[in-house]
Design goal:
CATH architecture of the largest domain: 2-Layer Sandwich
CATH superfamily of the largest domain: Bira Bifunctional Protein, Domain 2
Shape: elongated
CATH topology of the largest domain: BirA Bifunctional Protein, domain 2
Distance between the termini: 82 Å
CATH class of the largest domain: Alpha Beta
Number of strands: 10
Number of helices: 10
Structural class: alpha+beta
Strand order of the largest sheet: 1-5-6-10-9-8-7
Strand content: 15-25%
Largest sheet: 7 strands, mixed
Number of domains: 2
């Protein structure tokens, strides 16, 4: 067999070997065999040829080298593509993937939002770093008002900049931008100077609601909040409104719900009364309406607020708020 036939035979054997490769290591070995060892052996034979023969045979060697490089490169690209496709095959289904559970507060909030949105409320949010103007003054609590003592506040830059102590400030901002009729809930994080204990944390979650339009009465307030509690806790739950005091509503009412643990019979959770206070509410004070430019003789409205953390204690039958912050995944899966 002369050299030209040998080279053609090598081309054929190279193609056959490349068809059978199963690893990058095999491609590397073929590259060494054909592009290093064999080509080197061909070059070593040039010294035995005449000048004219060297020129012709040298071209033959280069043609083989280019052919081998091209075929090996194609095989490398094809093998890498196959390997990549196998590694990231999105059609492969794995049934051992663990999906995280929603935090109980998020789960409960979504349920509450669903109920209120279903009654026509929109969701509005505002800043957590707030001005005294929105957190107190425009809610009928000027600097000398004793109601400020009801909320121990985190001040950032006294006396005007603070961490909001309730999301009622969002209602004021919304009323400044919107004209009646207005129907919103304002969820978010609020801050108060409290020690951490089974019933208190310095940061917690609150949901407040507001409805302002013509001819809104206390009957509308009772209807909306009674429907809300029955949607969340069931039709059998009892609801009552009792007189209370909030500076930005008049008249004001605390909302009590029959204890879900004892069914209203009286237990440790409800302190033997059969009732649990779940929210505060009332008719928006005329001073608040006038402060945002609403005509209090034409428009009336109601507002309400509930602490989502304490609401969660009743909803999930937990004995203390701190459990909501412990990141106990086993608990999240149970509730």
């Amino acid at each position: 067999m002369d050299k030209l036939q040998e080279i053609e035979s090598k081309k054929a054997s190279l193609i056959e070997k490349l068809k059978k490769v199963t690893s990058a290591k095999e491609i590397s070995e073929i590259k060494s065999e054909y592009l290093k060892k064999y080509v080197k052996s061909l070059y070593s034979e040039l010294k035995n040829l005449s000048a004219e023969e060297k020129k012709s045979f040298g071209k033959t060697i280069n043609d083989f080298k280019n052919f081998a490089e091209e075929k090996i490169s194609e095989a490398e690209s094809k093998f890498k593509a196959q390997k990549s496709s196998a590694k990231y095959d999105v059609t492969i289904f794995k049934d051992n993937i663990k999906i995280g559970a929603e935090h109980p507060l998020i789960k409960l909030y979504k349920r509450i939002e669903e109920v209120f949105v279903g009654m026509g409320f929109s969701v509005v949010q505002g800043p957590e770093i707030e001005l005294d103007k929105y957190n107190f003054e425009m809610l009928n609590m000027p600097s000398h008002h004793p109601a400020r003592d009801m909320q121990d506040t985190f001040y950032i830059s006294a006396p005007n900049v603070l961490l909001r102590s309730h999301t009622s400030s969002v209602q004021i901002r919304a009323m400044e931008k919107m004209q009646p009729p207005i129907q919103i809930i304002s969820p978010g994080t609020v801050y108060r100077v409290d020690d951490i204990d089974p019933q208190h944390t310095p940061m917690f979650y609150q949901i407040e609601g507001l409805m302002v339009a013509e001819n809104i009465s206390f009957a509308n307030l009772k209807a909306v909040l009674t429907r809300f509690l029955k949607e969340v806790f069931g039709e059998e739950v009892g609801v009552k409104f009792r007189p209370s005091y909030y500076p930005y509503t008049e008249p004001s009412a605390a909302i009590d719900m029959s204890c879900t643990k004892c069914g209203g019979k009286g237990c440790r959770t409800c302190k033997g009364t059969g009732w649990i206070t779940v929210a505060g509410s009332g008719m928006v004070h005329p001073n608040v309406l006038e402060g945002v430019g609403y005509d209090s003789k034409k428009y009336t409205g109601f507002a309400f607020g509930l602490g989502l953390n304490r609401f969660a204690l009743t909803y999930y039958d937990l004995d203390e708020i701190r459990k909501l912050y412990e990141n106990d995944i086993s608990l999240w899966n149970q509730i």
